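Running co-folding for S-adenosyl-L-homocysteine.
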Amino acid sequence: MIAPGEVWLVGAGPGDPDLLTRKAERLIRAASVVFYDALVGPDVLALARAETRLVSVGKRVGRHSKDQRTICALIIEAALAGERVVRLKGGDPSVFGRSMEELDACRAAGIPVRICPGITAAIAAAASLGTSLTLRGTARQVTFVTAHVRKGEKLDLDWASLAAAQTTLAVYMGKGAAPEVATQLLAHGLPGDTPVACIESASLPEERQFCTRLDLLPMAARLAMGDGPVILLIGAVAAGPARRGSVFSQPAPRLRPASQRSSPA
Ligand code: SAH
């Protein structure tokens, strides 16, 4: 399924191997070499054949083991040597995954490159929390945003649009920046009691989650998070089950006959 000299960028999902696509699993089994990120779960890597070369090109905040240019060069070198190359990325390759650099580099070198999507962290986190990223009439849009900044730089985001009403914000790489995210969103008008859920290592056995509110996030973030990757979900959908339950414990609306109902948005 991978021709020699071909490259696949493959989404490894949030960590639980059962959340891989069947195609991703087949590609991992077919690869002769797998270049993988730090966030790819060990049980996902365990699916590779014994003879497959596994190469860590992991990047974690503050611990860049290989820079992006080196990673591109390694992938191209392997493809030109006739290997069946899988580039395995946590979550989905197209979400904060630097996949464009790798796609461009392969294309510039004349190497066929394709993408297999994966479940991104925001989706996995919502599933773990038992919530929905959208809520009819309450959360009409979902924004994926990264709060990662290079050392010494300021977090330069369009806070006014991020603080829009009726939005679910999924903040990637936001662990260190959680206090500033909270301060800025409050300053731009989000209420202090806006629900926030912090989900660490979603889908993995060591998963942890806690629900708080925006004005308490700075303190909660310092106290409650460990070493794993963390995603923040901010907005009505992030309320803990008790509070969320109250939304639905209101008297059920009387249903109109189907012929008079408008179709759901
Ligand atoms: N391409 C990945 C995101 C890479 S950026 C995806 O689609 O999910 C890395 C960030 O993703 C982490 O800092 C964290 O915010 C988030 N993340 C990745 N895996 C996660 C997991 N299992 N649980 C919680 N957050 C996760």
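Result summary
The CA atoms of residues 125 and 202 lie 6 Å apart.
Residues 14-15, 39, 89-92, 95-97, 120-121, 125, 172-173, 199-204, 229-231 surround S-adenosyl-L-homocysteine (CB under 6 Å).
Job closed.
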